[in-house]
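Hey, weird one. I pasted the Gluconokinase sequence into the form twice and got a warning about non-standard characters only the second time. First submission, copied straight from the form history:
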Amino acid sequence: MSTAPHTVQAVIIMGVSGSGKTTLGQALAAQLGWTFADADDYHPAPNKEKMARGEALTDADRQPWLERLHQLLAEHIAAKKPLVLACSALRQQYRDTLQGNLAGVALVYARGSRELIAQRMQRRQHFMPLSLLDSQFATLEPPTGAIEADIRQPIAELVPQLVAQLCE
């Protein structure tokens, strides 16, 4: 059963690669009883191959992917099946594409230092190599009006804080 207000129908957890979006998003979705989706699962194969080669995606590479994610959000909202989506959404224009004209979409910014995120990336298996971390931070436009999640905190502490802020 959802514990967030009915006005919030979707939450986008955004941040650079390695910031813990998936882990945080899965835990938040479990707490809320919502569906979880990882935007990485919606990247077309050429995008994943390009990143695996250490090449940063262009806006042209990202646009169809962002449009598909907007569609996913819209479908969940229309079906009244709340969704937590983990998605880098590094630039404002990407967040604008994701949200479009949808009402009830909250944004959570998984924020952390480059050093902490680099340490995390070195310990995981993922198609995004550590070599692209600097390009992620160069692309990042920190959001305004988002709920901030300090990733130095344990997930067990962050999730209740997020739920409380989503329910305000």
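That's the output from the first submission. The warning seems to come from a hidden character in my clipboard, not from the data itself. The domain at 10-162 is CATH 3.40.50.300 (Rossmann fold).
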